[in-house]
Amino acid sequence: MISTPNGVLALLLSVNILNYVDRQIVYALLPLISSDLRLSDAQAGSLASAFMVVYMVAAPPIAWFADSRGRKPWIAGGVAVWSLATGMAGLASGFGALFFSRAAVGIGEACYGAISPAFVAERFSFEKRGLALSIFSLAIPVGSALGYAGGGKLGEILGWRHAFWVVGLPGLLLAALCLLLPSDPRRSAPTSPYAGYREVWGVRTLRLITYAGAGMTFALGGFAVWMPTFFHRHWGLTVGRAGLLFGAVTVLAGLAGSLLGGWLSDRLRPSDRTADLLVSGWGLLLGMPLAAAAIGAPSLDASIICLFLAEMMLFLNMGPLNAAIVSVTRVEKHSMAFAANIFAIHLLGDAASPALIGWGSDHFGLTRALLAACLALGVGGWICLSARSGFGRDADAATMEAAT
Prior knowledge:
By secondary structure, this protein is an all-alpha fold. The chain has helices at 5-28, 30-37, 41-69, 72-89, 95-113, 116-121, 126-137, 139-158, 160-168, 170-178, 193-201, 204-234, 239-268, 275-296, 300-314, 318-327, 334-348, 353-364, 366-373, 375-386, 391-403.
């Protein structure tokens, strides 16, 4: 049943899968869209930036309203908005209309991305929370893979406009089901948005987790946009095959990495309470040379193998870092903590990187632009490991404040 913890997880996992399908499908379709609408690489990359800028700016005010007045309506409304906006992209007659539709997707997904992780986490005990969030995070590779593979194939068969309509419609049904989610318990009177976000951002561990996440999203967001195009240009693959290949690698590596990351952090936590940060930090550090090897590989097969290993390392942190955010913030501020994290990681990360990589591609070539982006992974890994020093203090403070 939807009202049980497992029912909530199942429904929101399904919604989250669609979230990433609608988010990533445009990247599989970029070669077709660019050819039809005559877009430069910088314009094509800015479509991702349009989504990310709106997504990160909308998340903080939405999270404050949701934490203060109940989160279920925001979840359901957000799913409906982004689904309609995805369908609108199929009607775009030029760059401006397509840019606007992708920005509107950001508004809908901000309602979901800032709220749903905390909504799931609060329905599971501390001992089970890491696994629940790891399962929830499986939507990232699964949805992304469906967006890349399914989007590329739909684009070849039906055209890029019809592909947007096909993936947009199911969201309206899921939005209706979200109205059946359990309501939030009554909370204390809300603080002002300024006071709430000052409290959340005052947690040192959250700030460092966010900076580490920014390094990851800078690189990973750029790869998500440009790797299918890289396969298409560098290795001569068709749009459909490039999307299918990148999608297959992403889903397999993502499933393996997400589950492995959750298992490792749970296994290490009894002896090291900073296990979430330890696993995540080393995953980012190891992912950097593997990602560079995938871009500079001498053959397609070698590129695929290195890309799989790189993505598996990067996906280790999906569940653990979310669990760490929940651990170091008060329950009344969980959505605001995730919103602050969303705002900063995208402001410093993939709000700019797709357009910057597109600019670099126009001037220096796509291969060099992608290689330069790999450096952000090493920076993120180092910051994540540095956050371990204050994790225990911040986690204890959050627990004590929640008890008073």
